[in-house]
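Hey, resending since the last one bounced:
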Amino acid sequence: MARLEGRALLATRGAALLNVAVALGTGLREGVMPPLAAALAAALLAESAALALIGVRHGGRLPDWVGGIDTAVSCAALSVNAALVAGPEIHTWGFFAYPYSLVASCACGLLLREAWRVCAASGCLAVVYLVSDHLASGQPWWNAVPNAGSYLGIGPVTWLVVRELRRMGAELDASRAVTVELARSGAVVEERTKQARLLHDRVLQTLETLAQGRWVSDTWMRNQVRAEAGWLRWLIDHGPDSVNLFAGSAGADFAAALHALAQERTRQGLKVSVQVPHDAQAHFAGVPDEVKDALLAACHEALTNVVKHAATDRATLAAAVERGCLRVSVVDQGVGFDPTARPERIGLQHSVRGRIADIGGTVEVSSAVGEGTVVELRAPLP
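The C-alpha cells again:
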C-alpha cells in the first residue's frame, strides 16, 4: 500500500509540473518570460524533487509534516504568482500556480492521516487562492469562489479514497497472513502424517511383536514394551499434543489435568481412576500454578513407580483441598514393600519429595508387603 501511495504522489506531482511546463511554453511563444516566473517554476520543480527523494527514503509512506510543508509551498506559490501577474496587462498563462496547486492538493489526502488536517490544508489553499486571484486580477470575490471550491473537494475526496484503500490493504495483508499460516500448518500436518506412517510401519510393529511373543523373557520388561507400544499408537492416532495434556498446567483446570494424566497412564497399561470433588473446577480455583505443576509432576513419578514396581494394573488418584492444604494421594493395591527393609528409590526421593519440598509441602509414603502403597502429597495454600 505504501508503494501505491508513493506512485500516486509522483503521478499527481508530475501532472502538476506538466501544467507549469505548458504555461512556460506559452510564455516563450509569446516572447514574454519574466525572470520571476522562471525562478518560481524552478522552485516548484526543486520542491517536487525533494518530495520524491523523501518518499524513496521512507518507502513511499511520507510523514505528516511533509504534507504540511507541501501545502505551505503551494500557498506561497499562489502568493508569489499573484504578484508576478499583477498589473494592467494580465497574462492568463502567467498564473500557472493555480493549476499546479490544484493538482498538487491531492497530496493533502495522500500525506495527511487525519481528516481535520486535510480539511484545514484544503481550506488554507482555497483562502490563499481567493485573496491572490482578487489582488492579481481585480476580479470580484464571488467570481473566484467556484475556482476556490475545487480545493475543498480534491483533498478530502482523495483522503477518503486513500483511507478505503488502506483498509482494503490491511484486510488483504491479514488474509495473506492467514493463508501463509494455514499453508504452514498444512505442511506441519503433512510432515507429521509422514512421520507417523514411518513410526507405525517400523517402530510400532516391532514393539507390538516383541510384546506379544517370547523374545522378551522378563515379564516386567515385556509389560513395559507393551505399555510403550500403546503409548506410541496413541501418539500416532492423536498427535503429540495429546500425550502431554497434564504438563504445563499453568492457568489450567487441575482436575482436568489429573484426568489427562490418568488417561496417559491408562494408554500405557495402568488403569487409573480419579477421585475429585463434584465442583472440582471451583474447588481448585485458588490453587497457584506452581503448586499444580509440582503436584502433577510428583504424581507422574509416583504412577511411574506403580508401573515399574507394584505388579498391578490399577491405581487411584484422589485430590481435595483440606485445612488450607491441597492433598493428592496415589494409591495402588500392588505387592507393596517394607519401607524399613530398603531405602527409597531415587525417583521417590528427588522427583517426588524434592518437588513437593520446593513448594513447602510434605510427602508421606505408607506401604507394607502384599498390601499396596499409598503416597500422600500435601501442599500448603496461601
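The CA atoms of residues 186 and 226 lie 32 Å apart.

Sorry for the duplicate.
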